[in-house]
């Protein structure tokens, strides 16, 4: 029996409420230390040029890093963001964006992840952003326990 | 007659379409090299704990940095994001968040800004995030010219 | 009697040994949450163009952030670097560089600082870099207690 | 005949002068878009706890990113640092540190790289830092042409 957070927690904190539910974030896959998220294009996610807004990409980075680290924390703990950084590599003009995060290190109180974001058009993926983020472990709110 | 972008451009790229209009970003004030944005709390902007989602705060950082740099670019140019970094300092649990950006340096092709984000409850402001971002000047899309 | 680390600690961890002593880092001023460091130009600190090497500037950012946060930690604790980010704003071609750090937030386990670096030539200071850094509080090694 | 910078340029800007020569940076391997640097431990590179100073690790990140991007620039151009960020993952207590950089994207004026730093003791490598950096292409100084 695992003492780590179950994969279902990723789903609950993503699709259960708030910004990530409203925007349409989907958890494609999660395992210990890794996660893939997806987000389909819609007008209310774009910037002036018709590409995904940088802030939406940053939110994918944030959410994916949080899940990657949280998946390696003991039950009852969740990662909240200390800092994140994103380099934007290409316009995100695709029909969907995918964020793939991988925990680089998770200790007692802090975890770090790297995150790659891809813009997908039909069967072509273009890496459009690369990020790193630090999470801090805090107690999971009672409503999620 | 100024050769720099007019303040109205900030309004257009913020309230005119897409993510920033849907989320409710407001341009409170803009002058050469400086901008203040505001965003009122609503459910679809929050994370699992009921605070503004880190990705929404990062989007405020991104938009504010873009406007601060763009306000110092010649007419016809606009700043797109090369990279951004945000440190989260306190939960953003207020009724509104404010982002105040200031350009640190704007050259021919690149501009850098610092951005402070405040969580506001009644008359109290708490600094909840601090960011830096780099913008690259590109041609303004024809539809905005 | 203060329960925080004394200003002398900044001096000891800077001038006492290792890289910062060899490079010539000087503690100009330190108070709770703030520090100024200085470093005079010499050949072994420069890059191919004759300016201070970016890594030397990053080291100033690192050391200044560590001292600014450590100065607000209880005696017996010291800040070690979780992450740092530096934006380079202008070539550091002066006779001396100065780093001024200010703690933005210090909690039980983590502290964040912002750092400005200036290149100084005679009486002119040019801001050449801007950074942010996160520190984690750990026990001070016994040799420093 | 390649129109890109030759591998020898990496050697010249690293071992030829200044900080990187004085510290002892060695170019282990360089190819288009990739580089490995090494640096042996010595007292004047350490911090108060006896590990490599964070600023020295940041300098490795900076130099490696610069070479990785420069190796993909046309002859006569060199990358100077726009910004860098480093996450420190473990104490760098080894006998040597290695930095491995890979260009993620190189365009006409800007290039981005990711950099991993390892602390090496005998035959064991521990990843001690992970960084990202943005470079800007400028004309190579005449003395290097």
Termini separation of chain A comes to 17 Å
Cα shape of chain A: globular
Q: Which class of chain A in CATH terms?
A: Alpha Beta
Protein chains sharing the most extensive interface? A-B, 39 and 39 residues
Please estimate the helix content of chain A.
10-25%
- What's the total helix number of chain A? 3
CATH homologous superfamily label of chain A: Hotdog Thioesterase
- Strand fraction of chain A: 35-45%
Q: Which series of helices and strands of chain A comes N to C?
A: HHEEHEEEE
| Name of the CATH architecture of chain A | Roll
Task: Write the CATH fold name of chain A.
Answer: Thiol Ester Dehydrase, Chain A
Mean pLDDT of chain A: 96
| Assembly form of the protein | homotetramer
Using the CA coordinates, give the radius of gyration of chain A: 15 Å
Explain this structure.
Four copies of one chain form a homotetramer. Chain A is of the alpha+beta class and 145 residues long. In chain A, 21% of the residues lie in helices and 44% in strands. Chain A contains three helices and six strands; from the N terminus they run ααββαββββ. Chain A has a six-stranded antiparallel β-sheet with strand order 1-2-4-5-6-3. In chain A, a hairpin with a 3-residue loop joins strand 4 (96-106) and strand 5 (110-121). The model of chain A has no long low-confidence stretch (mean pLDDT 96).
